[in-house]
Amino acid sequence: xxxxxxxxxxxxxxPVKPRLITTAPPETVQQQLTKVPHHRLTREKxxxxxxxxxxxxxxxxxxxxxxxxxxxxxxxxxxx
Length: 80
Hints:
This protein is mostly helical. The protein has five helices and no strands.
């Protein structure tokens, strides 16, 4: 089965956490961004991210997480 067909038949049914649908990046993401020189994640940029991309950034910005993938995630999501 071609990949395109698989993507068309799959659906993702999961409740979206309120923190992932906000119009501004959560505090943990903002704090992590302070470690990235000359970078600011605006409300506009946050608003165009998918819920999954927001989840990834929230997860990577949590205390106790290595955070080594935060910058690569920003790059992958076109935020740099």
